[in-house]
Amino acid sequence: MSAAAAVAAAGLAASGGATLADTAYQRTVRRVLNTTNTLRELGVDGDLQVPTLVIAGDQSSGKSSVVEASAGVPLPRSDGTCTRCPTEVRMRTTQQLPAATGVCGGSALSAAAASSPPGPHSGEDGEDDEDDEDEEDEEDDAVVNNAAGLPPGTTRGGGGGSSASAWQCRIKLCREFDSDGVRLATKPPEQPFCVVRDKAHIATCVLAAQAVLLNPRAVEDTPGGAGAFVPLLSSAQPGRQPAAAAKLLALRDASHYELPFTPNKVVLEIDGAEADLTIIDLPGIIHSHEDPRLIELVKDMVKANLAPEHHIIAMALPAGQDAETQAIRLMTREVDPDGRRSIGIITKPDRVPEHEAGETLKLIRLVGACGAPPAGAGAAGGSARVAHPQHPLGHYVVKNPSQDGLAMNITFEQARADEAAYFAGHKHWAAALRRQPELQRRMGAAALRRGLSGLLVELVIAQLPEMRRSCRELQAAVQEELGAMPQPIQDAPRELDRMLTRVAAALRCHTRADDDCTFYQRTQAMYDDYCERVMRCLPAFLVGTTLIGTLDASGKGPDAAAAAAAAGGGDSDAQLQQVWEGGALDVSALAAALGAPAVTTEAEAAAFLYSDEVQQLLTDHLLPQTFMTLAEVVELRQRHLGRELPGFSPYRAMECLLQRFKGQWRGPALACLGNVAAAAHDLTDQVVAVEFRDFPAGSRAVTDALWRRVEGLSDATAEFIEKQLRMEDRDVYPGDKAQLQELQADFLARMKRAYLRPNALSDEQRQQIEIKLAELATYGVKFASFDAAFLAQPTPVDDELHMAASCLAYFKVSSGGVGGAILVAFGRVRASVPMPIRDTLLDRLGDPYEVAAAVQAAGQDIVAAAPRLLAEHPHLAARRLWCAERQQRLREALEALHSPAAGVPLHP
């Protein structure tokens, strides 16, 4: 090596050995980066889009070596695929201060903001102004210390010294995706994996952490979980790789892992690092694989990390390949077409043989066509050349250890010395340095560190207004959420009493339809359904081909008539209305209207009425679906004949006929009560859920107490209804006897006409009959009309017809069916259910004293139990705490963003 080359190598080695923390940063650079580090410590970097460095490239392009060279962090490297998931390296030059010395109630986050990289200012730009800088540093220290709440005189770096903090690395597992690569609905906390205090142990531990993420089922099935895969650090020798855990060895090599890649991340949090930076090392882009889906998986993963505007893209471009056609270059152009946030890093320049001058000169021209010098990098070496139009940020070139060097466990310092010697001793690179001294700013790890730092700072300063705006918006959103949260209860017994009073008032409002009529309308529909079911239980008789029921169209009431009208609309419905008149249905006429076979006998009429089509018609129009035929009434009377004299009917037969229909009321009555009770349960559950929404213990206790109360009121109502039904079933109470007799005559006339089927008379025939009736009157046989004479003629079934007519009359009186009275209520039967339900169940549901008594009766001493019942929901308490902490973090973040360190211009 020539003397000039030796001098150049010494210069490169001197700068290459300098770490990122002690390169030629200006104070602005260091403090701006310290601000971003503070934001990361506060956990708001993602929300505020704090600029982050992302390294990407093809598989085995030397990405991980670039991370190590830039930050002094050894990561797994090999010729094959060694990065199978993103690796996020969070570096800080100082450790967090103890919680006791922090601000905001012991938070170490703000205390971290008071620290900046330790050690004296170094670099060619600061040598002539050392005394001035010391004075300014003391002033700035006072400002930062005051903002962080530290005692006056405290210097950055802790303890007033300039020594770096003890180095350690916490490795964590960040699981944001499931095994299929689908993002989880909620991001779980990062899981600690291990703590490393020897840099030589990093690579082994990172590989173990990757294995845990790539084998989720095996880890889940292993006792001890992820901890069982941690390398044996306790027995590891300093400077030597630790032994792998037995569970990790059982997984064998990566080709046997459950997942070939995962978007979940291994996180390295490093204290006492070479720089305050966050670097994300992505899996290498693969171009061929037996499973094409994996190629797309890795591409999608890389693209997702390149897309954010706040990410700086460092492209690893191996020498010997066309940089413009590499996949990472094409992906970067998609998200950064003007190249304002992407830098090319030429790796492995030693792959180009020294005798291939053309290829080497092409690399030199690519590196030489650099953009403007990074902010704060100084002007050493002359002015920069014109930037490449497509790559304004230019390219760097680094030479990292080969696989042979890695196998020999080469040290970081030796690697940098070898790099400097390579460029200084290379025929073409050394010559280019002599011609273009400014190339030194683009060659080697030291130059790369300076360039990345300068670009990162530029992006941070450019993002400051947007980060401040986002921080204020997030603050406002958190404040709004906190303001919307209910305040913690101070006087629990009094508040519980007020809440129970509000529950009772809400129940009363719903049951009485004072405001919201939904519940009232729901129960009213249940009462209407009960009435319809009662109507279907009323007696009806088939006499010949005529079906005679208890109620006519007016007797069903307006609600039932409307329901029947709503159900109608077809031709068959209109035909049914035409043949139903006065409570009687002409079955023969209906059959003819529907086009059915002729109906001439009682048996044919019964069969026709029980057909599916006719049953549906009867149901839609609330007409009787079940009935007794006259033949069945004859059989019933014959069965009860005893010692009666001729001409008398057995009264027991009449009682049995009435009882047959009375027993059908109980089912609809109890069904209606059950439906209303279920609605009352739903109502109380809803009201309590709303009032006690933030207090799960109180909600459960009050809900259970009111459930038992509704059940008790329902039982009391059922007992009352049962009593009413027993009274109705046990005895025959006709009420108004005159009305009963009038109805008996009316129904008997209908039935006799149905039985005898008289022919229709013309006006002339009626006139002749009137003359004959007048002649009979002269002999003492007086009939008021033809109908009276007609009905006076005897039939073989007079007793049975009289029984059926009396049954219809009794139920019409019992159900209130006389004249217009039916339009108001169904009488005893209709009122025997809705009124007790309203009085005994619903009206008492919202009694405030009874509500409080129900809670007390459930064993809840209101005074003693109130604090427990009104304990805040754990989720709400956790959310409140999260919001409060987030509000504090955002406040500190905003202070950091407005601090003098963040606000100074890059070129003071």
TrEMBL record:
Organism expressing this protein natively: Chlamydomonas reinhardtii
Keywords, sorted A to Z: GTP-binding, Nucleotide-binding
Compositional bias ranges of the Acidic residues kind: 125-142
Entry annotated with the keyword Acyltransferase: no
Occurrences of domain GED (ranges): 800-905
PROSITE patterns: GED (PS51388)
Protein name per Swiss-Prot or TrEMBL: GED domain-containing protein
Cellular compartments per GO CC: cytoplasm; membrane; microtubule
Cross-referenced PANTHER family: DYNAMIN, DYNAMIN RELATED PROTEIN 1, ISOFORM A
Location of region: Disordered: 109-162
Domain of life from the UniProt record: Eukaryota
